[in-house]
Amino acid sequence: MSRDRRRARHPAPRGRSGATGTGRRVVVAGGGIAGLAAATALAERGVAVELFERESYLGGRVGGWTTTLPDGTRTGMSRGFHAFFRQYYNLRALLRRADPDLGVLTPVPDYPLVDAHGRTDSFEGLPRTPPWNALAFALRSPTFTARDLLRVDRRTALALLNVRVPGTYEELDHIDAREFLDRVRFPPAARHLAFDVFSRSFFADPRQLSAAELAVMFHLYFLGSAEGLLFDVANEPFHRLWQPLAEQLGRHGGTVHTGTAVEAIEPGTRFRVHTGAHVTEADAVVLALDVRGLREVVAASPGLGSRDWRDRIAGLATAPPFLVRRLWFDRPVEPARPAFLATGGLPPLDNISVLDRFDSDAASWARRSGGSVVELHAYAATGSAEETGRALLTRLHELYPETRTATTVADRSEWRADCPLFPPGGFPRRPGIETPVEGLVLAGDAIRVDLPVALMERAATTGLAAANRLLAAWGVTGHDLLSVPVRGRIPPLRLLAAHATPRAPQSH
Ligand SMILES: Cc1cc2nc3c(=O)[nH]c(=O)nc-3n(C[C@H](O)[C@H](O)[C@H](O)COP(=O)(O)OP(=O)(O)OC[C@H]3O[C@@H](n4cnc5c(N)ncnc54)[C@H](O)[C@@H]3O)c2cc1C
Q: Measured from the CA of 37, which atom of ligand 1 is nearest?
């Protein structure tokens, strides 16, 4: 339940209550969060929706499949741990369609952040409301000293207190996150914990990430929201998150085709959507694809869009690869280990989760075997998959020494590079939801939406907003969107920030 009374509501255009009887048909390409959000939002308004997903499962990067362990157990596998923050209003509203009490999510009591010197920060028991949350975090943190705080360049740091979208991009997009932090003169130790963890959650080294993206994230998670700094996790394997939503879509008359890639789109009086030998006609198309899928479909559809728009799609970049390594051990880890531990300055490790603490499949395997299921993440990997995997295990042995003598019963790795990169200077060319083609809209976490959202919440928000665009064009009421407040929530600091001129850009 939301506790932030200052969250912002963005009303959808009003019109008729539904499109039933108009015969409108929409193809949604991509069955990740963005595609599922768009398809659900359209189907609920009586639009006939067909969703095509390339993989055999729904959920995209938060999708799940099953794997068989050497002992014969069939268990859930995925790209791994995801944090569902309380301010993910639109994503939660989507999940609630099929799970009104959000029973599939479980709160994590804390997520300590540990650095190479063993210093640990914690989010447990902090006040919820900014700026008290940030102040309390800083005051009790072993990585901040009063001297460090006094050294901070307050004029530059003020940008973090007056985040607006797109204003913050105009101010900060030209510099990278590392340079911004240098200008803020953030203490290096605290930076690892408070900022690098955020920036690496965008799968990029801070030198490859737009400072504006970092600032928006800081606003969304820290200074702009009073939902608290803790988050929920899925207590079921991921495929069980999306199946109920697909069934709900079916109840609204929608159809889902998994294992079916969209190959090309022909514009015309109606769109012709090519999936292998089959062609589906539609009045509108939502492309809710990952970066590679979007680039490929647009490249294979020569008549689609303007030259400039096609170039912008072709120019979208993916972040470096990441590795998720999941290990099934024959013995438990120490009871004091947290469900989730984030790390800073311990490359290539970014976090460790003890999956059997919250995931039902992992928990039942651990109960039966007396073992544990541990997952390690490395984002923005610089070595090969093998090197990264080995280094992750070494880090686990250092941090959780009890795993050194454990026997590995099963070992699964996911080495992928399918997250968008938000490089410095990239924002002006980032494609938005609308396209030059009437009836064609985009959605996904790589797509621009002028609201303070990121990652899974950006995927859900762009999906709903894409559906709203189509519904508005047909005179049908859309779906209201929610977000954290759209600018810094502390008026005097906001005023101060507005008057502090941003530093002149430096060349890159
Ligand atoms: C390891 C990891 C950890 C993460 N942790 C977090 C976290 O803690 N919190 C958070 O908020 N976010 C997290 N994220 C990010 C989050 O997963 C994404 O932001 C979100 O899932 C993106 O959803 P999407 O719908 O935009 O894209 P996707 O999930 O990529 O969906 C796109 C879909 O399009 C399909 N597709 C591609 N081409 C075609 C085609 N030609 N035809 C049909 N279908 C096609 C793909 O198969 C995919 O299913 C994490 C991501 C990873 C990888």
A: 25
Mean pLDDT of 51-74: 97
| Residue 241, both tokens | 């998150």
Ligand 1: nearest atom to the Cα of 29: 43
Residue 184 in contact with residue 214, Cβ under 8 Å?
no
Q: What is the DSSP string of 117-185?
A: T--EE--TT--SSTTHHHHHHHHH-TT--HHHHHHS-HHHHGGGGS--TTHHHHHHTTSBHHHHHHHHT
Which letter does DSSP use for residue 403 in this model? G
How many domains does the chain fold into? Answer: 3
The token pair at 211 is: 């400072």
Q: Is residue 465 part of a domain?
A: yes
Q: Whose CA is nearest to atom 31 of ligand 1?
A: 32
Average pLDDT, the chain: 92
Q: What residues pair up with 113 in beta bridges, in sequence order?
A: 121, 342
**One domain for residues 179 and 153:** yes
Confidence of residue 126 (pLDDT cuts 50, 70, 90): confident
Mean of pLDDT values over 148-177: 87
Task: For residue 116, tell me if it sits in a domain.
Answer: no
CATH number at residue 281: 3.50.50.60
User: What residues flank ligand 1, with Cβ below 6 Å?
Assistant: 29-35, 52-55, 60-62, 79-80, 82-83, 261-262, 288-290, 293, 297, 322, 324, 377, 418-419, 444-445, 455-456, 459
Residue 503: pLDDT over 60: no
> What's the sign of the alpha-carbon dihedral 281, 287, 293, 298?
positive
This prediction has a pTM of: 0.96
| Same domain (yes/no): 131, 182 | yes
On whether both 333 and 390 belong to a single domain, the answer is yes
- Supply the range of the domain harboring residue 22: 17-60+242-316+424-476
Q: How far apart are CA 448 and CA 463, in angstroms?
A: 11
